[in-house]
Design a protein that fits this description.
This protein is α+β, with helices and mostly antiparallel strands. The protein is built from 20 helices and ten strands. Strand 5 and strand 6 form a beta hairpin.
Length: about 550
């Protein structure tokens, strides 16, 4: 047993080896990240640099990009935090070669190269494809909601936004009058008035929020008119019960609710007539009294189906007792009332979204992944539902596959079957042009139960709808096994984005979210996080630094 402890000599001259190359082991992640960034096409980051003139030399964009990649790999996105790590963390000191950039340099780098950071996702896929990876035989896609850099309590309606705009203009006018009285109409002071600087861009954000509200109202009005036309045509052709092929689910649900209300109202009136005749004859009504219209079991069932259809369309409508004005009238009055259209003052581009853990202010991010779990596309959207995002996702995946084939020369980068969940279920999505798709109409538990209790084999019967064909495929062993691949293929990368890249993490200071505000900034951060995830996937799949350096 030793007689004393090891010597702690903090005054020694060589605490670290003289060469930075010896500071960390050869298998440390930082060397892989440095080699990976060297393989990427970073010309877009150098395009803004000005060389050859006078002035202080700037930081190498490749070094700054490497800092961003390594920081995102560890869930760090704060420029101040990255600056502190460059002073204290050996890996960060190696990346910047102990020439620490200020946090303002890092923040401006992210803002100035927003488009280049978004394009880095494609560059990471090109690198993976050149190394023989990225399998497109099966592509899974899904939507995941990520919080914006804004509070859901900052949402305001149009009336409130107009009052804020008027108050802001009144404040500016009062500041102008005070300055005129102090300095004269043709003069100004040595510094701008306190109310005119508007460094927070409050006036611009108020106007932007108003524009968002007006645009959403116009889109909703157009959708109401289109659904009203479909409802009138459906009322003329719909048979009793059921729904004709290709009918809009929301229109059919509202028409069914109106039909059931009419039947219940007829039953109630008939019973009242019999009761009046019995009383007039001095007797009592015979038989069970008819229930009120809204309490009839068929009306309740139709109202529940109508509310589900409204929720699928991302709307809020009145399907209660006060909504018995007819299917066409309901369609015209459905949707959010004018005073419920709101926009966020902090981030007008963000939306109030419902998640399994409650409501958040954020973006609905659409992602897709290859069979070997590389993120192919990542798109931040303002849509509360996934159903309208199928076609844009297909277009993005097909375009990405074509770009990878063009730049790598591989002929096996063809999109096979695209698999999504029930959130994308609609007749339009099933019949749309594009690759083969497998989209169920129920949750995973129901799909598993159908495959177990109602197994199928072979091709689906002829003269069946797209929905019936896919349901048949999902009941076959091959189709069911194919659909079971969806969850690990796409949900795991989405979890990496949120929990490992820091886009959703619960800390002492609250929920982690997008760092910057606006749809474009959120898109850049989402694409960059996806690119970093792909680069780390290369490391976990055994790609060595020597392979990166030699290609």
């Amino acid at each position: 047993m030793a007689r004393s402890y090891r010597l702690v000599d903090r005054g020694q001259e060589f605490l670290l080896p003289p060469s930075m190359l010896d500071w960390l082991p050869d298998d440390h992640l930082v060397w892989f990240v440095i080699a990976a960034v060297e393989r990427l096409d970073t010309l877009a980051f150098h395009a803004r640099a000005r060389l050859g003139g006078v002035g202080r030399r700037g930081f190498d964009p490749d070094m700054l990009l490497t800092l961003f990649v390594y920081a995102m790999a560890h869930g760090q996105s704060s420029s101040r935090r990255i600056e502190r790590l460059c002073h204290t963390d050996v890996a960060f000191r190696v990346i910047c070669a102990q020439d620490v950039p200020d946090h303002t340099v890092l923040a401006r780098f992210g803002e100035d190269h927003e488009a280049a950071l978004a394009d880095l996702l494609t560059e990471s896929l090109v690198l993976a494809a050149e190394l023989g990876m990225v399998s497109l035989g099966v592509v899974a896609f899904d939507g995941t909601k990520i919080a914006a850099n804004a509070s859901k309590d900052a949402n305001r309606g149009e009336a409130r936004l107009r009052r804020l705009a008027e108050e802001f203009l009144t404040t500016v006018a009062a500041a102008d009058e005070a300055d005129d009285a102090l300095f004269g109409e043709d003069s100004r002071g040595d510094e701008p008035p306190a109310g005119m600087g508007d460094r927070t861009r409050r006036g611009e954000r108020i106007n932007q929020a108003l524009g968002q509200v007006q645009a959403r109202r116009g889109a909703a009005e157009q959708a109401r008119r289109e659904r009203a036309e479909r409802a009138r045509g459906y009322e003329q052709t719909a048979p009793k019960g059921g729904r004709p092929r290709g009918a809009d689910p929301l229109v059919a649900a509202k028409t069914r609710l109106d039909r059931e209300r009419g039947k219940a109202q007829a039953l109630l009136q008939a019973w009242r007539a019999r009761a009046e005749r019995a009383r007039a004859a001095g007797g009592k009504p015979v038989g069970r009294p008819a229930v009120p219209v809204e309490e009839h079991h068929r009306v309740r069932k139709a109202r529940a189906a109508c509310q589900a259809a409204l929720a699928q369309h991302g709307e809020a409508g009145d399907t209660g007792a006060g909504a018995a004005a007819g299917a066409a009238g309901q369609t015209e009055n459905a949707g959010e009332p004018p005073d419920t259209f709101k926009a966020n003052l902090t981030d007008p581009d963000s939306r109030l979204l419902k998640t399994r853990n409650g409501w958040i202010q954020g973006y609905n991010c659409q992602t897709s992944a290859s069979g070997d779990e590389f993120i192919l596309t990542a798109r931040a959207t303002q849509d509360a539902c996934d159903v309208e995002q199928f076609t844009p996702t297909v277009n993005d995946v097909v375009a990405t596959a074509a770009e990878l084939a063009r730049r790598t020369g591989r002929d096996d980068l063809q999109v096979g079957t695209m698999i999504g969940d029930a959130g994308y279920d609609s007749a339009a999505n099933l019949d749309a042009d594009g690759p083969d798709r497998l989209i169920p109409d129920a949750k995973r538990r129901a799909i598993n139960q159908r495959a177990a209790t109602e197994p199928a084999a072979g091709d689906p019967p002829e003269h069946t709808t797209g929905r019936e064909q896919i349901n048949h495929r999902l009941r076959t062993p091959e189709g069911h096994a194919l659909y079971k691949r969806r969850a690990p293929m796409i949900e795991a990368p989405n979890a990496w984005l949120k929990d490992r890249r820091g886009l959703r993490r619960f800390t002492r200071r609250g929920l982690r979210r997008f760092t910057r505000r606006g749809l474009a900034a959120a898109q850049a951060e989402l694409s960059f996080a996806s690119a970093v995830t792909n680069l780390l996937k290369l490391a976990t799949r055994g790609v060595t630094i020597a392979q990166l350096q030699t290609g």
